[in-house]
Amino acid sequence: MVTVDDFASPVRPTWCTGCGNFAIWNAVKRALAQAGLAPHQVMLVSGIGCGSKLPDYTRANGYMTLHGRTVPVATGVRLANHGLRVVCTHGDGDAYAEGLGHMLHAARRNIGLVDIVQDNRIYGLTKGQYSPTSDRGRVSKTSPWGSFELPVNPIALALAAGATFVARSWSGDLQHLVETIVRALGHRGYALIDVFQPCVTFNRQNSYDYYRPRVYKLQDDPAYDVTDKMAAFAKALEWGDRIPIGVFYQVEDRPAYEEQVPALKAGPLAPRPLEKLRPDQVRRLLEEVM
Amino acid sequence: MQHVSDELSIRIGGEAGMGLESSGVGFSQALVRGGLHVFGLPDYHSRIRGGHNFFTVRIAHRPLYSHTEPVHLLLALDPETVRRHIGALVPGGAVVYDEKDGLPDTPRRADVQYFSVPLSRLAEEAGGNAIMRNTLVFAVAAGLIGFDPAYIERVARDNFARKGPAVVDANLRVIAAGVEAARPFQADFPFRMEAVPGAPRRLLLNGNQAFAMGALAGGCRFVSGYPMTPGSPVLEWMAAHAAEYGVVTVQVEDEIAALCLAIGAGYAGVRAMAPTSGGGFSLMVEALGLAGMTEVPVVVYEAQRPGPSTGLATRTEQGDLLFVLHASQGEFPRIILAPGTVEQAFEAGWRAFNLAERYQTPVIVLSDHYLATSVRDVAPEDLNFDAVVIDRGEWLTEAELDNLEGEYKRHRFTESGISPRAIPGHPKAVYASSSDEHDEYGHIEENAENRRRMHEKRMRKLETARAGMRPPSLYGLEDGDLTFIAWGSTYGPLREAVDRLNGQGVRARMLHFTDIWPVPEGVEGLLTGETVAVEGNYSGQFADLLRMATGHTVSGRILKWDGRPISPEYITHHASRFTLHVSRFTHPVKSET
Fold first, then answer.
1. Cα of B562 to nearest chain A Cα, Å
2. Which residues 231-290 of A have a C-beta within 8 angstroms of B?
3. What is the pLDDT of residues B209-247, one digit of tens each?
4. Contact A64/B201, CB-based, under 8 Å?
């Protein structure tokens, strides 16, 4: 039986006391344990940023890569070994600034990744610049006059790009986070989970107290149909005093990218022994150029 | 008067969309099946229709390594071809032009012949479509040089079989019409090149195909790329073979993703590569450092074209050497190979993956448009599949991992710098590596002592790798006075230039490098006497690299940066300076095309 303790790393987090990353970290470990995935059966891929240090604090296969390139590296891992459950953990700068294009293409491909975005709506590790999910008018070190830019809407973007699982959760509700990640781990294709992650040091606006009265759970409404894309779009645009969390959209009728790759029909690539070409294969290759 | 030629070159020219390259390669295939040796060189613009394209096939009874400048027979599918290339014809040579096009109102050359053939009309009549004059005109050429058209017919049968018998028959009728149309001119055309019946079968392929084949043979099972001339045919070739050979190929959103996917696959334990050209490589630069830092084996195939920026998209240059050598911030070991021939491209294909896994670091294979796209015939055994070795380096087996004591150290300090690798997925080798500086386990670590040791460990791999790098090959007179230094695709033209110079009593030799970085051991001792670097770039980048690595300053440089490949004539022309005195730089003569 896999337990949360199996994921205990000797490295202690360097996050600030009260950082929303602690809840995400705990939720990832609990969700993996609940899903019965042992540390060697998963790969945590991250980029660069406060949240991207999560794999260092977790005993599991991991790879801390480049800022913004979490998803393409994870895609390579997944295609090379789809026997591994690949989970991305990276921040909003990583996912929605440098990595936004990759996210949309991953959604469109329906590659089997769980993409957890630690969305604190600020740059933390570089100490307080506005991020792609910062509100318009946000005053920061690089926007002293208040940001002129609209925040990206990751939920709507992912839906528009064809994502088959789109969810939002937040660090103030560990149980909801765990449930959402467990559900994503059971999804066959690309699964985005945007997680509101209060940054207690550089983002005083989007705090626990800001989110708590605003968030409500989509799944509390038994009539909400997660397979209804238009309903999901409507909910994706809901913002302000009431902010929906939960699974906006989930369909299982589209095969994951890796399910369709001819070379992967025989199973994961990485464990296969590498052998020289057989003489008949060599002959066929040479005949092509005779 | 007719005579059996030692060699001859046939050039077909026209607009993009006229099917010059496909018919040119088809004709080359027929020549090779007919026991002749060929070197086929495409020259085209970055466009799908219009413009001026041409394909030159050089034919001989001996193996060829290069194109050459003189042309014996010009096949003009438009007047522009006559205008541009009439000057390249040797005295006695001929131009075949379409009766309906007539000739351009440029001065006629008295020493060449003009054969008017109703190419369009005959193609229309025999094949039902004037576009088939590309096939027809090569049949005319076969008729003129006395090459048995049966070989062309057989290639047409093979190549058009999948399009159905009607298409095959139309092509056969067109070929017959072409041969017939050549008859009236046969006696006037002085150059003959007859087939050698019963010659052993040979292969015809370009550097891209050879590299891709070598990579597949060497266990490459993952290819991610974004289309860019001239590197993307490698992705296409792999995609065409993916299902049969169990290769994952992905066309991704950009070259950043291309290398990141390959690195992810490499991290997971699959031999992976990203083919591209210089522009795409520019986007890969940051990821290259990730592979260096986290010690991930990965191969980048960089087929150079002239830069900067978009440059000349469909032309050739060797201008990226120092760029790929220094690309990405910080210091990390990398290996650079630069194959110069089809055989070397095949070998680089499988060797690159062994080097990448043995030293757990990125390997860059530098090709260029000339090598990537020009076709040459080689014997089947020249693509030496028997010599292929799959060496995965220091790799912990399942059994070794089962018995592992203590926590696995992915980046263990070792004397060689190589840390035995475990592929993610084993319960005893659970680890996370980081692009941040890390300790032996992979954990992020900023401690100065750890940094010093870890950086040294990585950099030691470069010295370990150096011992495995191959010295340059020597061609020509072993004790020659004049040493030409080449790397990559200048091999062929320079080899021929050395032969010609030695024929003139110059006493020349060529040192050709395929293993560029780390610079092989002992190179200093080979750089003696008068040394001349021959490179397809403006500054002589390899000469500069040699000076950096060995302290040797070359006596001179023969360089070319007009986007066109270096020819043997270009080298011998400029080499005359070095047979008299030493000149620091030479500049290209104006290209006639």
1. 31
2. 261-264, 266, 269-272, 274-277, 281-282, 285-286, 289-290
3. 999 999 999 999 999 999 999 999 999 999 999 999 999
4. no
Which one-letter amino acid corresponds to residue B255?
A: E
- Output the CA torsion sign for B102, B104, B108, B109: negative
Collect all residues with Cβ–Cβ distance below 8 Å to A87 and sequence separation of at least 6: A28, A32, A42, A43, A44, A45, A113, A114, A116, A185
Instruction: Give Cα A289 to chain centroid, integer Å.
Output: 45
Please count the structural domains in chain A.
1
* CB-CB under 8 Å, A275 with B242: no
Contacts of B245 in chain A (CB under 8 A): 263, 277, 281
Determine how many CB atoms are found less than 10 A away from the CB of residue A249: 24
Facing residue for A80 by CB, picked from B219, B264, B385? B264
Residues of B with Cβ-Cβ distance to A81 under 8 angstroms? 268-270, 424-425
Instruction: Provide the pLDDT for residue B85.
Output: 97
- Between strands B298-304 and B272-276, the pairing is parallel
* CB within 8 Å: A270 and B272: no
Helix (H, G, I), strand (E, B) or coil at A207: coil
Q: How confident is the model at residue B4 (pLDDT cuts 50, 70, 90)?
A: low
Min Cα–Cα distance to chain A from B240, Å: 11
Predicted local distance difference test score (pLDDT) of residue B582:
35
On the question of pLDDT at B27 being above 80, the answer is yes
Task: Check if A84 contacts B (Cβ < 8 Å).
Answer: yes
Query: In this prediction, what percent of chain B has a pLDDT beyond 70?
Result: 97
Q: Measured between alpha carbons, how far is residue B408 from residues A57, B395, B397, B443 in Å?
A: 16, 13, 13, 12
Residue matched to tokens 């599918």: B77
**Does pLDDT of B580 surpass 60?**
no
Domain boundaries, position A65: 4-288
Q: What is the CATH number of the domain that holds A117?
A: 3.40.50.970
Full-model pTM: 0.97
Which chain A residue has the Cα nearest residue B268? Answer: A77
Average pLDDT over every residue of A204-210: 96
In which band, very low, low, confident or very high, does the pLDDT at B586 lie, cut at 50, 70 and 90? very low
Please indicate whether, in this complex, the C-beta atoms of A79 and B202 are within 8 angstroms of each other. no
- In the 8-state DSSP scheme, what is residue A39? G
Q: What is the pLDDT of residue B587?
A: 44
The domains of chain B, with CATH numbers, are 3-201 (3.40.920.10), 205-382 (3.40.50.970), 394-468 (no CATH), 473-580 (3.40.50.920)
> A 21-40 residues with CB below 8 A of B?
38-40
Residue B366 has pLDDT above 90, yes or no: yes
The answer to whether the complex's ipTM is over 0.85 is: yes
**Least Cα separation, residue A186 to chain B (angstroms):** 19
Q: Does A187 touch chain B (CB under 8 A)?
A: no
Residue-level pLDDT at A21: 98
**Pick from A38, A55, A270: which is nearest to B268 by CB?**
A270
